[in-house]
Every structure is written in structure tokens, then in C-alpha cells.
Amino acid sequence: MCPPEHFTVEYAINPWMDTKIAVDGALALKQWASLRDTLTDLGHLVHVLDARPGLPDMVYSANGAFSVDGTVYGARFKYPQRAGEADEHRAFYAEKTDNWRFFAPEQVNEGEGDFTYLPGAYGGIVLAGYGFRTDPAAHAEAQEILGRPVISLKLVDPAFYHLDTALAVLDDRHVTYYPEAFSPASQRVLAQLFPDALLADRSDAEAFGLNLVSDGRHVILNTEATAMGHKVRAAGYLPVHVNLSELKLGGGSVKCAVAELRP
Known Pfam families for this protein (predicted)? Predict the structure, then answer.
């Protein structure tokens, strides 16, 4: 995670960003700390990246890389405003060379924003989004680097510009997603792969209820996503709500703020 010490909305690169709305920096830091404390209270180890001036979106640390079994596929951001974040994430893994094998990408991709992993599904598969940020050629590149099958899914609604705004992993084998965020063909692929998926509706997705983090039992999601909280509880998980209203101003929520490490 990376604290929002320099978080502002200085530019608009997704439909949620409005440069006319001011960010409450102190509140953003307080909310971020609440998310970090929630994770540690649940028994998770949180590494903290130092925030850097000039990189206001660095708080969305999920976008900086994607790791599977100790192999790290680095990010290459679409927009120049965020390009410097990739170097900060690469430096983090370089400090831990005994545990990680880092690969710099040739293709544009935005890390866990558009990649996620299910170790218990079909022997271990990667789901990968494209359509707005990540180049589909990055999916093939990631497959060669990670040695895991990569399933390409086309995003079609600009409001859900990253995979992690439209789909979330609940445990090693199960997902939840908003079907209409995907192309008809990708909807058919998801239905075939995950016939028992927990389906979300547009109001869930617009509340960033799919931008969640799950440890297989606890599902951490923002306080606005009350309906999604009821759905995951009915599915047998324990919802844990955290208020991240300020981070939503930049187009992100719980998952965007957390890069999951898979050593």
C-alpha cells in the first residue's frame, strides 16, 4: 500500500475524476489508514511504499505490478502522468531480490488493475482485462512470463475501465462480477468458467462494490457498497466495510489501494 500523501485530482483519465472537486487530503489519509489497520487487524502483513511528489495516483498501488508465485510482471502505464509509478514498484521488488523475480514489460499494462489470479481454478488461471488501459498484447506477454493460462476479457463500459472495477476474486476458485461491463463474448466466457459466480448489478459496480479485497473469508469493501455487502454475506463470506469516499474521487477504492503479493 502507498499512503495518499500527495493524492489530488489534477487531471482526468477516467470518468470518475473531476478536477473541479477538491480532495480532502487529511480525510484521505485517515481513510487509507483505516483500510491498512483493517488489513493488519485481520492478520495480514502490509508493506508500505513511500509516496512520491508528482505522482498523485500512487495511492492506487494495485496498478504497479502483478505477481504470481514469486514472479512479478511489472507495469507500463498508458498515461504519462502515472508512468513514474512503475519505477517505484520495481524498486520495491528489487529490494527483496531473494524472494522475487521481476520482469519489466514491453507491453502497456496496469498491473492488478487488469490482472487477477485464481490458484484453485483450472489448475491456476489468470483473468486479464483490456479495452481501456491494458493492451491485449500484454496478456500474451504475461502468459509467457508467468507460465499460467491467461484468459482475455474485453471491458466495454468506460465507467469500469479496469478489470478490478468489474470483477473480483472471492477465494481461490470463485469470483463476483458485473456482466454488462464485459463484451457479450466475454460474458459467455465468464459464464462458462464460473457458472456459480456471484453476479453484481450496475448499482453494485457504481458503488465500487467489486473493487474489493478478499482473503477467502473476509471481504473488505467500501461503506457505500451496502447491497454488495449483503450479497457476499449471503454467499457465505464476512463483509468488512471501510469508508474510502476520498479515493473514489480518483476512480478507485479498496482493491485499487492494495497490491496483493503472491510469493
Answer: DDAH_eukar (PF19420)
Domain count, the chain: 1
Q: For residue 229, what is the domain's CATH number?
A: 3.75.10.10
Mean pLDDT for the chain? 97
Note the pLDDT of residue 96.
77
Can you give the pTM of this predicted structure? 0.97
List of residues 6+ apart from 91 with CB closer than 8 A? none
Give burial (CB, 10 Å; 0-12/13-18/19+) of 53. exposed
What does residue 235 show for φ and ψ, rounded to 5 degrees?
-85, 0
Tell me the pLDDT tens digit for each residue of 108-125.
Answer: 999 999 999 999 999 999
Extended beta strands in 12-81, E state? 65-68, 71-74
Give me the amino acid identity at 212: L
Identify the domain containing residue 244 by its residue range.
25-257
What's the one-letter identity of residue 113? G
